[in-house]
Structure formats: structure tokens, C-alpha cells
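Pantothenate kinase 2
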Amino acid sequence: MAGLKEDPFLETNDIIETREGAEIKDAVIDKLGEEGSQGDREMAPPAGNSIHRSGSRPQLDLSKAAIQGNSEDRDPTILLPNQSDDISHLALDIGGSLIKLVYFSRHEDRPINDRRKKTVKERLGVSNGNRRSYPILGGRLHFVKFETRKINECLDFISSKQLHLGGIDSHGWLSETPANCNAVIKATGGGAYKFAELFKERLGVSLDKEDEMDCLVAGANFLLKAIRHEAFTHMEGHKEFVQIDQNDLFPYLLVNIGSGVSMIKVDSDGKFERVSGTNVGGGTYWGLGRLLTKCKSFDELLELSQRGDNRTIDMLVGDIYGGMDYSKIGLSASTIASSFGKAISEKKELEDYRPEDISLSLLRMISYNIGQISYLNALRFGLKRIFFGGFFIRGHAYTMDTISFAVHFWSKGEAQAMFLRHEGFLGALGAFMSYEKHGLDDLMVHQLVERFPMGAPYTGGKIHGPPLGDLNEKISWMEKFVLKGTEITAPVPMAPSGTTGLGGFEVPSSKGGTLRSDASALNVGVLHLVPTLEVFPLLADPKMYEPNTIDLSDHNELEYWFTVLSEHLPDLVDKAVASEGGTDDAKRRGDAFARAFSAHLARLMEEPAAYGKLGLANLLELREECLREFHFVDAYRSIKQRENEASLAVLPDLLMELDSMTEETRLLTLVEGVLAANIFDWGSRACVDLYHKGTIIEIYRMSRNKMQRPWRVDDFDVFKERMLGNPCPHKRALLFVDNSGADIVLGMLPLARELLRRGTEVVLVANSLPALNDVTAMELPDIVAEAAKHCDILRRAAEAGGLLVDAMINTLDGSKENSSSVPLMVVENGCGSPCIDLRQVSSELAAAAKDADLIILEGMGRALHTNFNARFKCDALKLAMVKNQRLAEKLIKGKIYDCVCRYEPAS
Ligand SMILES: Nc1ncnc2c1ncn2[C@@H]1O[C@H](COP(=O)(O)OP(=O)(O)O)[C@@H](O)[C@H]1O
Ligand SMILES: CC(C)(COP(=O)(O)O)[C@@H](O)C(=O)NCCC(=O)O
Ligand SMILES: [Mn+2]
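Structure:
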């Protein structure tokens, strides 16, 4: 273990280093063979030697390689702690002002030796996930930009990340480019021509030029079809996401506001025409603005505008009409009659005008002009929808409001301006899509998950210095970043209502004085491509499905949940740090995690729609993601273990008690048991306070004793009727389980046992990754095996479900006969959060769902915060104890610790 322990961030628990370095090498080479590159066989260095990296191409770094799990296994997992997992693939859009970079890093989840998976796959007929014939195996799309005038920074970035070495082989598969092969990178924009030589010289790569308009359209179409919260309207400071119906996307007008402006009528996927444009665009604002104000950067110029008053320089209708409106033609006194018009009539020089006023006047002039020309073109072709892209917009509220106003005003509300979250990356994305056959264009909404990690190189921002190499650098960055103060949290300035309304040509005022730094532009995340994700097949109406129950666009609600999460943070950090041994390193990571999560919260508090439509589920997931980002693998690991053990110890008594009851009483006791045991929730403030007051078993007893019917939502009698009144039992039940300890052991497993006893197959559906104290699919087989020691029903079913292949359990009656029991299985749900978005579930869950006719959702996260209003094609039971006062009031007009037993027959 010695070598591995040196890396403080490596999970060392399950790693056994083999004695023979050669064994590892061979295993590594074998593994590699699976993924393609034959060349690696020759490239593997002799065992035992230290490994040198060739500068010309990325190669495997085998240093400290180790087998994970049992080294006797035929197909062991090998950890390469020093190998970066990025095998990349890059496309560029080199514009007049900015270079946009989209790159792909293939990131297969570390294969883990999960035998459960094999049996589940065999049983449910899932063939190797949902892998398709094309090579996207899962990976990430990153978005980064640089100023064109600082092209060297961009070249350094590409070179340090070795992005230019990924390529496409003859089969159209992503691969590393052999050293002697001339690497080719897709590029669009004028710079693809202008800088072709420089790329050749500096990186040895050729730029394969793609037409700019083709790329813009391909990028826009991809985003509009594949990203759920891509397009939004922005009117009078109010941002609203627009759900685009894929079948009703065309035709539309695409207006790309870069240095110059292109207007493209898009009729279908490959069919479009550039119908107009204007040379008055982003370059004009930045260029003229720089000359007139002496600003050093675009952001500085934009920031100035926020403190500007354009009335000092623009000629208004009132200036011409002696302070009066020109009401006959609908112009108020404060309407701009002539941008910069006042400068002609006064004996003032440039120095006599405030740079702030000049910047605002210029911004308004250009935005209105573009809005107006766009409208005219929409009118020309009868287009109702106009999508605006390009980096001139820069997520700036006032710019968007101005454009929206112009479109709304001139079209009398007929046409609508919409903006794109990936605004300036359309061309680069389109160039990326032009790599043939990588299958990206086939990806669908449910296969993409957007994440917002911390750290400039990962976000759509400006790069300061070299890209962050490892976790340690990321932590330091986080520390420095927080020292820099409010940059990340400073909002994109919001325009107060009415600033751009008819006649409303007042001065814009911003909430934050400073413009949110581009370096922390956390409004474009990293797109994770997960081809195995599927829409849960039992949703009654997937199009109408909305996972979140609570609407966080209600500001009070937002504020409440932000406070809850902020207050919970210190306790969570304590648990997380303790779970990693409480070392100094763990403390440092804990601190960085807390800063990162707080920064996200602050950012979202200011601009709730920054990362797309925001629901409580997203916040809870973001917290788990943040923990993982700082390598906290499982913060509640020991708590979960302790509670599992304590609960397993009392399981036999509970089962005996249950078996002595009549069927009817037993069913009620079982459901009561699930509700009572759902009290063990380390995500609830109130419950955590409770745990200080008693042992697990005491609390469980107390909770059970308090179960008074009717519950606040109580459909038990209807459920009982279906269960006992109807002679035909359910064929297969999916049990979405929640917490470890009593919740699973004393609540859900006994309920599963009852279903099994009645001849219903049971599939336990658990998280793929840890979240709070939720039980994971990896942990479940061991828990089931322990429980099975005390129960024949569970044992036979678990055996039939292939769950006990490894477990050395002593059977109660010593018999080994193959029973005819219906199976008990475990599948992972594809997520790592206390909530579940059923539009994106694992392929094994989707497969298991095909034959299911009953689903049971358990816990606040899965049954209340999400899916409370979800409708299913089969019978559904939603069970939860409400461990939050406010939620109880809002959702069920009840109080804390009230229970929900909602039963909905198939719809
Ligand atoms: N950091 C920045 N530096 C320079 N220009 C910026 C920056 N952020 C936004 N812009 C604006 O974006 C415009 C460039 O937009 P972009 O879509 O990248 O077009 P192009 O491909 O012509 O470079 C600039 O002219 C400027 O108005
Ligand atoms: C995070 C949770 C959804 C987990 O609940 P569970 O799904 O385990 O029942 C829940 O604990 C919660 O909403 N907590 C925050 C509210 C509070 O502390 O009161
Ligand atoms: Mn939970």
C-alpha cells in the first residue's frame, strides 16, 4: 500500500497493490486492448521502471498502478492514479475578437468490480448498458474562450492539456493520434485561415476549415434540441426559460452578434440562408468604446455602462420638443431621438463627457439597432422567433432587455427575442459536430447532464494562468479565488423593471456595482455525455413531467431553502472531513468544498436562473457534486455502517413480530414501519438534532409509537384494497429506497419481503453514487445478505435474484436447494442525489421498469421534493415522513413529522 498512500486524494480502502509489477502491466495492457489502441502494447514501458511521458503524444502513465479489489480476478480493475483521464478532441472558432474552444474529454467512469451489475444485466436483458454503434462512450464537453489578440494563451492551453493530440481514426472513432500522423483539428471563423500557419508551427496541427455559417447553424440546432434549458427570454429584468418543442423548432431567425452580425434564416437541420447582417456589432461597441473611453477591457467598458446616464449625450425627443412627448406618433419625451445627438449641439469635447455615459449610449445604440434590423428580417420572412447568440450579449441583462424591447416594440409583440445560454459557442460547437460519425448529433436531451464545477479552465471564462492540473491546484485556486472577494457572486446586473419600456429610457441601475467576472462565468457548465441514461419508461407523460415540486422562482421559497442549506453546511463539512480521517488535507478540502458550495449558492441567490431552471433537486444535487469535486467520496460512510449494524441486530425480532400478525395488520404495520423509519435522515436539520437525544432504536420505537392514523395524506385503505382485495398480485415492484440503517433494514426490506411472499418480484432501486445517508446500489447486496441470514424468504429471493453469489451466508435450515422463489434484485438509478429526475435514469432501471406494475417511491427527496406530482402508467405508492416544518405546511398543510401515504392506481 505504501506507494498508493502517498497520494492523499486517492481512495485507498479497496486497493491492493500486487507484488508483481509485471502483473499489473499486463493487466493494464489487456484492459487497454479493449478500448482500441494497439500501439499501446509496444509503448508500455518495462515493469518496475519509472515511466517517462513522451512529449509528442499522451501515453499511459503506469506509475503506481494497482489492482483494485481481488487480484485473482479474471478481469480486475486497475487504477492508474497518475494517468489523466482526458483523451481529448477539440474544435475551434477563431473570431475577430474571441477564440472559442470546445473540447471533449472521454471520461469513462472507473470500472468497478460490481458483480451485481453482471447478474442484473443477465436478468434484465440489458446488453452492455445502452452502448450504441458509435464511439461516444460517455465523456464531457468543455467550453473555454480566449481573446484573439492573446492567441498565445490559447495555444499554451491547448498544448498543456494536449488537446491537439486527440483525433478520429479511420472508423470515425475518437482515438489518440499516432505520433507520426499529422493531427487535424476542425476550425471555423476567419482565424482558421489567418492563424493556420501559427497552429502548424506551434502545435504541429493542421486546421481543417469549416464554413462559419454551417457551424453557427449546426451549433444552434444542437443546443436547441439537446439542452433542456438553453433558450430563454429576457424582458425587463425577468429571465424565463423557453421549452422548445423539437418538432416545432423551424423556421427561426438566428442572429449571431460577434464582432459583426449575421442574420440567418434557418429552415431545417441543414437548410438555411444568411439573409442579412450588419457591420455594426460587438466589435463596434468594443472598438469605438475603447477609443472613446480608454477602457482596457470589454468588461470594463460594459461595467462603465452600468453607471452611465445616456441622457447627457443622447438627443431625446424631449430635447427637441421642449420637454414634451411627441404623443401623436407614440414617442415619449424620454425616447432617444438620436444617439449621441447631443454631442453636435454643445461645445463640448470628448473629455467633457463621462466615459460611463458614453458607454451606455453606445451600448443602447448598438443593441437597439441590432434588435430593429433583426425584427425587420423576421418580418421579411414571416418568422416569429429570433434567437440571439454571440459574445456581444455576454449574459448582460441590460443588453438583452434592450434587444428584447426593440423586437417587442417594433413587432408590436408579434415576434419574440430569445437568448442562448451558450451564446458565443455556437460556431465552435458546430465545428465540433462536423467531425464525422462521432454520433454527437444523435445525443438526446436525457443523455446530457450539465455540471458546474469550480475552476476557471473548466468554465466558459477567461483563463488566468495555466489550466488547473490537479485537485491541489484547484483547492489553492479556490482559496485565492475567495480572497478575491465577491467576483463570483457579483451578479450579472439586472435591469430594474421599466428601464427599457415604451418611453422608459431611464438610466439602467444595476443591483451589483461590478460586472460578474468573466473568469467565473459559471453560466455555462461542462456537458456530461452519458449515453446510457434513459427516460423512465413508466412515466405517464414524459413531456409534461416536471420533477421538482417546489417552485424556486418564488423568491421567499428560494431564500428559505438557501438558508437551510447554508446552515447545514458546517455540520456537513464536519462529517465529510471525518469521513476522510480528519487529516489536515481533508480539512483543507472541506474548507474548499464549503467555499465552493457557498459561492454557488450566493451566485444562484443573485441569479437563480444562471445554471438553467432551478429547482430544489438541483440544489441538493449540486451539493453532492461539489463534495465529489473535492474528492469526498462518501461523507456519511461510517454513520451508514453504524446504523445498518444497529438495525440488522433488531431485524429478527421485528420479523418475528410481523409474522405473528394477520395479513391485514401486517400490511399496515409494514407501511407504518416504512414511514416511521424514514425519520433517519441526516439531511434534515430537525432530525439531526433528534439523534443527539437517543439511540437509533429508541428513536425508531418512538417514531413507530407516534404513528397515528389517519396520516396527513392517507390512501392506505385503497392500497390495502388493491393488495388484499384483488387475487392477482403485482408481477414486479420497483422499490425506490432511501436511507441506510432503519429506513432500509426495518422499513423497506420487510415491505419487500411481504411483496416477495405474495409472489411479486422485487427490484430495489438505489442510488448509483452516495448522497447524504442514502443507501447505494453497491451497498445493498451486503445489507440484503445480512438480512437474509435471518429470513428464508429474503434468502431465497436474493438467491433467485443472483444477489448472494458471493455472500457466505449460513442458511437458517442449512438447505441449499434451488428454490422457486420470485427474485429480489438490486438496480442502480443512475443518480447521486437525494432526489430523482425520472427523465434521466440508468439503463438497468429502465430495463427493470419494463415489466413492473407497481412502483414505491420512498423518502422526502424522491417522493416529495421530486415526483410528488408525477403520474405513472402503473400503480404508484409514495411514502415519506415530512421532516421539515415549512414543507409540511406548504405541501400537505400539516406539521413536521407528519406522514404521506399517497397511492395512485395506474393512469
Ligand atoms: N472578454 C471579451 N473580450 C473581447 N470582446 C468581448 C469579450 N466578451 C464579450 N465580448 C464581445 O463579444 C464580441 C465577440 O463576439 P464573438 O461571438 O466571440 O465574435 P467573433 O467570432 O467575431 O470574435 C466582441 O466584439 C465584444 O463585443
Ligand atoms: C435532503 C432530504 C431531501 C433527504 O430526505 P430523505 O429523502 O432522506 O427523506 C431532506 O432531509 C431535506 O429536505 N432536508 C432539508 C430540510 C431540513 O433540513 O429541514
Ligand atoms: Mn435520504
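Residues 681, 683, 738-739, 772, 774, 834, 859, 861 surround manganese (II) ion (ligand 3) (CB under 6 Å).
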